[in-house]
Amino acid sequence: MGADQNTNWRLAAASVLEWWQDAGVDMLVGDDPFDWLGGEEPVALASSPPAQPRGAPLDPPVTATLPATLEELLAWRIGTAAPEAGWGVPLVTASGPTTADLMILIDCPERDSTDSLLGGMAGRLFDRMLAAIGRSRDDVHLASVCAARPAAGRMPRDLEQRLGEIARHHVALAGPKRLLVMGDAASRAILAANVMEARGRLHALNHRVSQTTEVVASFHPRMLLERPALKADAWRDLQLLKRGLE
Helices (H), strands (E): how many in the chain? Predict the structure, then answer.
């Protein structure tokens, strides 16, 4: 009939199967009817906990009890039980009087300071900022969210919640009249907001019965060294901090 009627059905079948595979068909279709538009039956896992109803409160995470006094907390922060104890770098304690009316919270020690907070160039700028409002390190309580400097120089995300809880407990035990948080890490720990979102107004931090600390957010001296144009805003923050402390 003018055409080769000898067909290799094995090769033809293989070609068809290859075409369907390239088209994305990866399963067989049986003769029994099947509801392709229906959802899959849920599979119950014996080890899965029962689901909570929508809107039900979640169980709070189990948190280790923190020291009950400020003196115990300061010792604990540089001991073997501190969250940063395994970092292999020196732990730096808070400084200044524990009864000061003004407390200042930063993120962590400086790279070039292993025995005190805010050393080096950032520390010298910090001292000038304090002097501009008639204060010094001798009459403020200076603390950090991290007792050691992280390897990357920024707050570890996996410890941020725990270190923030410790910082808030520190403020509650110290009970200052005003708190200056300097930098995003310190601002997030206390106010749950970055400096640019929190600065420019007083925030009320209620931490004891009938006792409130007013919080001011501003830039870390390290940031002011990198971006001197922010010093005008930092000066306004210091003026806000000073009002009411005289």
Answer: 8, 5
Closest CA to 92 of 106, 79, 109: 109
DSSP codes of every residue in 148-181: S--TTSS--TTTHHHHHHHHHHHHHHH--SEEEE
For the chain, what are the domain ranges?
A: 70-242
Report the distance separating Cα 67 and Cα 129, nearest Å. 32
CATH code of 70-242, in short, is 3.40.470.10
Instruction: Supply the pTM of this predicted model.
Output: 0.73
Determine contact, residues 222/194, Cβ cutoff 8 Å. no
Rounded distance between C-alpha atoms, residue 183 and residue 3, angstroms: 84
CB 67 within 8 A of CB 131: no
Residue 3, token pair as written in the block: 């055409």
120 contacts 113 by C-beta, under 8 angstroms:
yes
Residue in this structure with the two tokens 């732990």, named with its chain if needed: 91
| Rounded average pLDDT per 10-residue block, the chain, 246 residues | 55 61 57 54 44 40 76 96 92 96 95 85 96 96 95 84 96 96 96 96 84 95 97 97 86
Helices (H), the chain: 9-22, 70-77, 120-132, 160-174, 184-191, 195-198, 221-226, 231-242
Helix, coil or strand: residue 105 = strand
Contacts of 207 (CB under 8 A, 6+ apart): 168, 171, 172, 175, 213
- Do 147 and 82 touch, CB atoms closer than 8 A? yes
> What was the pLDDT predicted at 208?
72
Q: Residue 210 is encoded by which pair of tokens?
A: 């009938």
Of residues 216, 3, 30, the one with CA closest to residue 129: 216
pLDDT at 151: 83
